[in-house]
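Sequence design from tokenized structure. All designs in this work follow the same two-part layout: the structure record, then the generated sequence. An example of the structure record is given first.
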């Protein structure tokens, strides 16, 4: 596409493809010229770069011309056959020529001309789509990597407007990491994005590829989408579709909505942290929300040796108990159940008396008053730290 005129451009590469495709379909030798009658595409590669003199008149008049063997012999670079103008709007941008008996090629002339113009329009449309996709990918990367000290937010907002987006609308960043379920299976960027856009299809949504296997959706957050869990539910639906249709496994994270370039960047950072921390805290889940992972994120941002010292100081010998995973789960459930016996027992799927027994055991082993919120919160944070160490620290893995 010519960026100045908006018209399709007949490049040598495209001309060669058109000449090859039409020649294969019709069985004739096909020749394509530029407006100066220079051959830029031909089944006979030796003619590329030569002048096809008959095309000069065809370009000038915009009308087809038949060349008999006698007429062709008196012109430079011409063989008997037919030459037709390739037009876009009112402009002749080249010619398409068929070599053969005039009576025979005349029957195919109009069809060949139209086919050349269709192929040219399709190539221009494909290029336009590719440029748009590249612009979308660049935009989501701009949001992900935004640094106010380096990039002007107004410049990023201007790119949003070019993509038809309202830069001031609230959006939540959603991160998708996906891989083929079966080793060696193909994973198509186009396939993934088509499915993503089927689920997130609001005209103010934008989805692009950040890196191989990693995609970003900037989802408009208004109306029903502001309801708690609505975007997370949509993420679950998308992951199911990717697995059912394309054999892809994935996981997603949801950032909290933000407005403008800065707000969307913060949402992206939240989602990136959730995608990194979530699997350690909720290993059985596929969708993680930043709002549910604030505390693990805060703990995870502490240097590793600091986390280890904190967990050691609070938990002491508890971690050496054979049933430590059960005791840890109990402490986490006790805090997240609001230190309420019935709610916590229901959350842990155990009887109230079982919970009381475990809390008493933890108190005796640790010397902590676990039914007092201040000490229970301290142990809760230490337990979350232990979970993070267990699932993310290389030293613990070894």
């Amino acid at each position: 596409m010519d960026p100045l005129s908006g018209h399709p451009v007949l490049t040598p590469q495209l001309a060669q493809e058109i000449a090859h495709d039409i020649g294969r379909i019709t069985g004739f030798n096909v020749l394509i010229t530029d407006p100066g009658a220079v051959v830029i595409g031909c089944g006979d590669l030796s003619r590329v770069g030569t002048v096809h003199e008959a095309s000069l008149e065809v370009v000038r008049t915009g009308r087809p011309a038949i060349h008999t063997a006698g007429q062709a012999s008196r012109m430079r670079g011409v063989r008997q056959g037919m030459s037709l103008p390739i037009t876009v709007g009112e402009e002749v941008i080249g010619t398409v020529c068929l070599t053969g008996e005039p009576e025979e090629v005349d029957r195919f002339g109009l069809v060949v001309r139209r086919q050349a113009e269709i192929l040219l329009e399709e190539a221009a449309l494909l290029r336009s789509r590719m440029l748009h996709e590249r612009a979308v990918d660049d935009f989501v990367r701009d949001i992900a990597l935004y640094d106010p000290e380096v990039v002007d937010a107004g410049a990023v907002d201007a790119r949003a407007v070019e993509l038809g987006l309202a830069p001031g609308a609230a959006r939540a960043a959603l991160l998708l990491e996906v891989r083929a379920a079966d080793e060696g299976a193909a994973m198509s960027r186009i396939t993934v994005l088509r499915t993503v856009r089927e689920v997130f299809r609001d005209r103010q949504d934008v989805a692009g590829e950040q890196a191989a296997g990693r995609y970003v959706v900037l989802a408009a957050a208004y109306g029903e989408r502001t309801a708690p869990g609505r975007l997370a539910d949509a993420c679950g639906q998308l992951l199911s579709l990717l697995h059912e249709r394309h054999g892809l496994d994935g996981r997603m994270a949801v950032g909290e909505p933000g407005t403008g370039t800065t707000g969307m960047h913060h949402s992206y950072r939240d989602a990136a942290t959730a995608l990194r921390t979530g699997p350690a805290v909720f290993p059985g889940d596929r969708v993680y929300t930043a709002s549910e992972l604030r505390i693990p994120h805060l703990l995870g941002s502490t240097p590793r040796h600091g986390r280890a010292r904190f967990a050691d100081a609070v938990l002491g010998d508890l971690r050496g108990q054979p049933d430590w995973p059960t005791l840890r789960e109990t402490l986490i459930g006790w805090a997240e159940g609001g230190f309420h016996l019935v709610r916590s027992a229901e959350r842990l799927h155990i009887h109230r008396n079982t919970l009381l027994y475990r809390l008493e055991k933890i108190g005796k082993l640790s010397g902590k008053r676990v039914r007092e919120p201040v000490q229970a919160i301290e142990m809760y944070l230490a337990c979350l730290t232990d979970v993070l160490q267990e699932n993310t620290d290389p030293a613990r893995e070894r």
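The longest helix spans residues 109-144. We note this feature because it recurs in several other targets discussed in the main text.
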